[in-house]
Design brief:
The complex is a heterodimer.
Chain A (H helix, E strand, L loop, with lengths): L25 E10 L12 H16 L8 E4 L5 H9 L5 H5 L5 E4 L5 E5 L5 E8 L3 H16 L6 E2 L3 E2 L11 E8 L1 H5 L3 H10 L2 E4 L12 E6 L7 H30 L1 H17 L5 H16 L8 H10 L2 H8 L5 H15 L4
Antiparallel strand pairs in A: 1-5, 1-8, 2-3, 3-4, 4-5, 6-7, 8-10, 9-10
Helix pairs in contact in A: 2-11, 7-8, 8-9, 9-10, 11-12
Chain B lengths: L13 E6 L5 E6 L1 H6 L12 H14 L16 H7 L7 H4 L1 H12 L18 H17 L3 H16 L1
Antiparallel strand pairs in B: 1-2
Helix pairs in contact in B: 6-7
Chain lengths: 353, 165
């Protein structure tokens, strides 16, 4: 079992470096732009031939853009299910793109800082990702990619409605800013639902680790804008940068400090149990592993633990997921085999047996 | 009012009388949830937006009979009803073909009906220097916070250029 993505599975992308402002709480910042081209129907109305035509036109534009010359190209239609899932786990394509049908592709920077999906829900979905809260860096890059592509493409743009999209929920700027947060202390103290509700009141969407359709909130919490019309990219970005994210980060920090001060044993117990389980389990699901890795990550950042390094931890978050695990193992595994392999993999990475 | 005959816990709010072909009556009394689970009522979001229907009646009476359900895009052939059922439009022209009901829909979802922000350069609209300046200043803050001093120096130079222009 080998394929084009074997090497990709071995390391973590740019956005999992664990650096950047507020990185101990803000895992990553992602921006995507939805774009469509004049003269073609939207994808729900495109038959197989038209889809192929659109894909070819987008592909041509990307390949004529010097800024994107190093982008690695994957024909998603030709990839097997495991490779497609691997790309979903790395946030390079959406679940919808993976499960779709017909001509479709993704092109991504080797560092995975940017990616372009062709024929997802819209003709083009451009995204940039950064570690920590780096909204401006992400915006600067995506804006440049968008400008560069526009030189070769006639975007569907409307004087009143802005950039036109297949779904009216994206029309206008076509922008979606998503920030992934790690909020274990708020979850431990049952404050997370309050934060989620406050975000919803601000018309922001709150989701689990893998975006749309993953409603169950673990310690990881993805927050994104829903309004795309009537507010400029700058305004939308500024809300996140100056208001929403700093507030939540401050709340999580204060909660961690309060736990350290008032209930250090309760906090240590969570952290050290997590270490104990990860170092000793013989069967572990990705959901369970994720929960313990989350507590270990918090332990590192509050200074109660130094025996695990952050890079290893960040890679584990990615590599314990089903497609990564199977890719690294070199063969397909059933559910129980995966749990065995995952437990062994974690023990090996944490240097125990 | 009795209890639901299926779960025997919740209040029965759903009352159904079935009459078969030979005229025998069979009554059922269920709670909302059980009725939903038996597929007797649509659970969750209704497929038809009542507000939309009302609006379409109002629109129809105002415009003298042009009902929303008859709206069809002459370029891709999708009807407004199809769009409402699947949630996705068929082509860029739909935004004009369905302009009236769509504007109301956008007003409800986004609280706005006009685009603000980026426009394609090919349209030749001038950029606002104030916007650029605000953005550069914030980028400078980010660069300093991230201890990326090389970038910070570049940004500072660009800000000076703009301010002196």
């Amino acid at each position: 079992m080998s394929g084009p993505l074997d090497q990709v599975a071995r390391q973590a992308g740019e956005w999992l470096r664990g650096t950047g402002p507020m990185h101990e709480i803000v895992i990553s910042t992602r921006i995507r732009l939805a774009r469509n081209i004049r003269g073609f129907p939207f994808l729900p109305r495109a038959d197989a031939d038209v889809r192929r035509e659109i894909a070819a036109a987008m592909h041509g534009a990307v390949r004529r853009t010097p800024l994107l010359k190093d982008h690695v190209e994957m024909d998603v239609e030709q990839l097997d299910e495991l490779d497609r899932t691997l790309l979903v786990e790395r946030h390079l394509i959406s679940r919808q793109h993976a499960d779709g049908s017909g001509a479709r592709a993704v092109l991504f920077e080797p560092s995975e800082a940017s990616a372009i999906m062709i024929n997802e829900e819209d003709h083009l979905r451009i995204q940039t990702m950064r570690s920590g809260l780096q909204i401006d860096a992400a915006w600067e890059q995506i804006n440049a990619i968008d400008d560069a592509l526009e030189a070769h493409l006639d975007y569907a743009f409307h004087a009143q409605y802005g950039y036109l999209t297949a779904c009216p929920t994206n029309v206008g700027t076509g922008i979606r800013v998503s920030v992934m947060l790690h909020l274990p202390a708020l979850r431990l103290t049952n404050e997370l639902e309050k934060v989620a509700q406050a975000a919803r009141d601000l018309k922001l969407a709150v989701r689990g680790l893998h975006g749309e359709g993953t409603e169950a909130l673990g310690d990881f919490f993805q927050i994104s804008n829903q309004i795309t019309l009537g507010r400029s990219e700058e305004e939308i970005i500024d809300d996140f940068r100056s208001v929403v994210i700093p507030k939540i980060v401050e709340y999580e920090r204060a909660t961690r400090e309060a736990l350290l001060k008032n209930r250090p044993q309760a906090l240590d117990d969570k952290i050290w149990r997590a270490i104990g389980l990860l170092k000793n389990a013989r069967l572990i699901s990705s959901h369970e592993a994720m929960q313990y890795l989350s507590h270990v990550r918090m332990g590192l950042h509050v200074g109660r633990l130094d025996s695990v390094d952050l890079a290893t931890l960040n890679e584990l978050f990615l590599q314990i997921q089903p497609a990564h695990l199977q890719k690294l193992h070199g063969e397909r595994l059933t559910g129980e085999q995966r749990s065995i392999e995952r437990a062994a993999f974690i023990r090996a990475r944490l240097h125990t047996n | 009012m009795g209890l639901c005959e299926r779960c025997k816990k919740a209040q029965a709010t759903f009352h159904l009388t079935n009459i078969d072909r030979s005229g025998n009556k069979a009554e059922r009394h269920l709670c909302d949830r059980c009725a939903g689970e038996e597929g007797l009522v649509q659970s969750g979001k209704p497929a038809v937006d009542v507000d939309e229907i009302l609006q379409s009646f109002i629109a129809a009476s105002k415009s003298g009979g042009a009902e929303l359900s008859n709206l069809v895009c002459d370029q891709c052939g999708i009807s407004y009803v199809e769009f409402r059922n699947q949630g996705l439009l068929g082509c860029p022209n739909d935004y004009d073909a369905f302009k009236e009901p769509l504007t109301r829909l956008l007003e409800r979802t986004h609280g706005a009906t006009h685009h603000e922000g980026k426009t394609p350069k090919s349209l030749g609209l001038p950029r606002k220097p104030q916007q650029d300046l605000r953005r550069l200043k914030r980028q400078l803050d980010e660069a300093v916070a991230g201890e990326d001093y090389e970038r910070a120096a570049q940004l500072r130079d660009r800000i000076r250029e703009l301010e002196n222009a």
